[in-house]
Amino acid sequence: MDYRTLGNTGLRVSVLGLGALHFGTYNDLASTRHIVHYAMDAGINFIDTAPSYGNGLSESFIGQVLGARRSEVLLGTKVGRTLSRLPDGSGNVMELPLTRDNIRRSLHASLRKLGTDYVDLYQIHAFDQIVPLDITLSAIEELVQEGKVRFVGCSNFLRHEMESLVMASSGFKDLNLISLQTRYNLIERYPERALSPVCQKLGASFICYHALARGILTGKYQWNQNIPEGSRAQLSVRVRNALSEQRLQAIDQIRHLGMLYSRSMTELAIAWLLARPTVGTIVIGVRSIQQLAMNILAQSWQFPENLAMQIDEIFENAGLLSNIYALPEDLVQEGVSH
Length: 338
What we know:
Blueprint: E1 3-5, E2 12-14, E3 16-19, H1 29-41, E4 46-48, H2 58-66, E5 74-79, E6 81-85, E7 91-95, H3 100-114, E8 119-124, H4 133-145, E9 149-155, H5 159-169, E10 177-183, H6 190-194, H7 196-202, E11 205-209, H8 232-235, H9 237-241, H10 245-260, H11 265-274, E12 279-284, H12 289-298, H13 305-317, H14 321-324, H15 329-334
Helix pairs in contact: 1-2, 2-3, 3-4, 5-7, 10-13, 11-12
């Protein structure tokens, strides 16, 4: 496993991190234990979760399976989204105003569930349109000073929100802002042009999610074939809407390029992302050890620069190159869902 420094710090993080979104929903406690321990034994040292993940169970699952191995990993969790419980036991994700009291309560609840007295990375889950940033940042800086938070990041911020963060954070000397968790992949590159310059000014790295674009970049969807039974596209209108003939034809050409290097589409997509200079780590939200093992294969491949140029030529010839740098429509219309 390769490692990189996250932000302008000495924090060494594995280039693949383990996303815990499914722990508590698709994965029970036993399968969560298998996946977490497999990931750690493979050298993955970063686990990313949030209070709302896994129907509210993800953090407690992680705390239970880590036990005495807590010191072997960097734990990242978030603040800003919580669950409102429904009568059937499920939950709706709700925005949590980022006031001092809410932040402190949320962190202490996360620490109890995770079975630890500190988190390595505490991330603002989404930009708060109401509570002023200086109030939020002041509360989080207190937690850093108390030793309950080591480093701070943000998640799902757009360009103007990141610019506001850069301005607001300048007066907080102990804040340790090091990362932006963002949706970034081969066909969704809004962060590359819109966010990279702001992150460089802040001294922050990307923590990427949706590296495989909800399965579109695995090669399972092909332009001349039916949608596979049981796939995410069969269940999700959002994924189906992204499967245009133009896009699938381009991806199919890229998949054949990967075959020339004896690489799967999954390996190609992850290796391409790891070759981006602003990327610190990629959070992989897997449901099985098999999926995790396939993703681990990709991180050791040195992505050829000429291959990146060939891929961009395919997108340009398909009339898609400018489109992939735009803010995805579902983020504009519905907000970020991660």
